[in-house]
Design a protein that fits this description.
two-stranded antiparallel sheet, little secondary structure, Pectate Lyase C-like, elongated, 185 residues, single chain
Amino acid sequence: MNVSQLLESYRTGQLEFIHLVLPQANLAGSSLPFVSLMAANLRGADLRGAFLPGANLVQAKLQQANLVKANLIGADLIRVNLHRANLQSALLSSSNLTGADLSQATLTQASLTGAIVCGANLRAANLEHVSLRGADLRGADLRDANLNNADLEGANLQCTIMPDGSYQEYSEEWASELLAASQAS
């Protein structure tokens, strides 16, 4: 299946495209709300400005994909591979990124407000100016991540590995210190 066939099938009512193989696909600006691309190979795809709220991208391969300003609000991204993907200014609020690989990903100015990011790999990710307000980051790995000016208000950081490699149990005092430090940077 090619991009044109995917878009035409979607337009005629098909929502499920499981195990789709479209590496390097140009889907920039496409509108595919609630599409199921479960286990799809979209490695290196161009999804800039794509409208994908409620999409099912469970176990999808999106390494090095361009998702700048993509709308993935409420998307199911469990165990998705977004290694080195560009998610700058992407909307990921209320999405589920449990077990996702976001290592070395760019998430500057992205919104992950209320997102579930439990057990995710965020090693060396750029989270500068990201909103993680109310996000659940329990068990996430943030080693070497850039959290400068990140909004962590109300985020659950219990059992999270922090950028400096420390493993800390959550405490209100510690979360306040981290928030103050990220705002001072």
